[in-house]
């Protein structure tokens, strides 16, 4: 009996969004300590430091910037945690923020800061995973078509916003690439292992 309850407790703890909480808490601590974009040394040394491409995720322009990102990041991050695992969310966050930051720095003079790239990445991943779960009994081709039909219109909208914004201080193209990388990363999991997920999902879920 004790072993059974311990197992249930361990499984329940897996639903606690630890990765999301760490990003939120670290970002808030940085802001509380006065570490904002104005404190960032924008130099070649900064851009050549691999740590910058991850630490920039927890640096924000102010509390308004922070709260705006968290409104998007937290709900989708929690949802993706419930559908997968904290480790999986960390992977999606790292890939979407890191790669989009590399693209941004490679094309724009200036730093890309904030958790918005991670937010768009986990949003895309959560949508792809939800489609995969809803259609887990269907063929790979059906799931692939549904994922494309879900993600491509949103990608088109983000691209249009980025083009229309022009020289906006908001890194819209970074959002576009983060959404692309997050969705692509999740699609690899959903399409390659349709019946094997990190969290056991009943085939009749939602019914």
TrEMBL record:
<feature type="transmembrane region" description="Helical">
    <location>
        <begin position="62"/>
        <end position="82"/>
    </location>
</feature>
<keyword id="KW-0472">Membrane</keyword>
<feature type="transmembrane region" description="Helical">
    <location>
        <begin position="89"/>
        <end position="107"/>
    </location>
</feature>
<feature type="transmembrane region" description="Helical">
    <location>
        <begin position="113"/>
        <end position="135"/>
    </location>
</feature>
<feature type="transmembrane region" description="Helical">
    <location>
        <begin position="173"/>
        <end position="191"/>
    </location>
</feature>
<keyword id="KW-0812">Transmembrane</keyword>
<dbReference type="GO" id="GO:0016020">
    <property type="term" value="C:membrane"/>
</dbReference>
<feature type="domain" description="Peptidase S54 rhomboid">
    <location>
        <begin position="53"/>
        <end position="189"/>
    </location>
</feature>
<dbReference type="Pfam" id="PF01694">
    <property type="entry name" value="Rhomboid"/>
</dbReference>
<dbReference type="InterPro" id="IPR022764">
    <property type="entry name" value="Peptidase_S54_rhomboid_dom"/>
</dbReference>
<keyword id="KW-1133">Transmembrane helix</keyword>
<protein>
    <recommendedName>
        <fullName>Peptidase S54 rhomboid domain-containing protein</fullName>
    </recommendedName>
</protein>
<dbReference type="GO" id="GO:0004252">
    <property type="term" value="F:serine-type endopeptidase activity"/>
</dbReference>
<feature type="transmembrane region" description="Helical">
    <location>
        <begin position="147"/>
        <end position="167"/>
    </location>
</feature>
<dbReference type="InterPro" id="IPR035952">
    <property type="entry name" value="Rhomboid-like_sf"/>
</dbReference>
<feature type="transmembrane region" description="Helical">
    <location>
        <begin position="12"/>
        <end position="35"/>
    </location>
</feature>
């Amino acid at each position: 009996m004790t072993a059974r309850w311990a197992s249930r407790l361990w499984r329940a703890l897996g639903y606690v969004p630890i990765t999301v909480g760490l990003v939120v808490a670290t970002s808030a601590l940085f802001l509380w300590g006065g570490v904002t974009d104005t404190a960032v040394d924008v130099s070649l040394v900064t851009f050549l430091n691999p740590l910058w491409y991850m630490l920039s995720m927890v640096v924000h322009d102010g509390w308004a910037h922070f709260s705006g990102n968290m409104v998007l990041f937290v709900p989708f991050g929690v949802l993706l945690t419930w559908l997968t695992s904290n480790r999986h969310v960390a992977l999606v966050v790292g890939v979407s923020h890191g790669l989009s930051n590399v693209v941004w720095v490679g094309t724009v003079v200036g730093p890309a800061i904030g958790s918005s790239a991670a937010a768009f990445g986990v949003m895309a991943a959560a949508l792809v995973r939800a489609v995969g779960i809803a259609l887990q009994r269907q063929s790979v081709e059906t799931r692939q078509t549904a994922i494309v039909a879900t993600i491509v219109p949103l990608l088109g909208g983000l691209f249009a916003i980025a083009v229309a914004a022009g020289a906006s201080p908001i890194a819209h193209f970074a959002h576009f690439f983060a959404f692309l990388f997050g969705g692509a990363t999740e699609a690899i999991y959903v399409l390659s292992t349709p019946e094997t997920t990190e969290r056991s999902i009943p085939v009749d879920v939602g019914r």
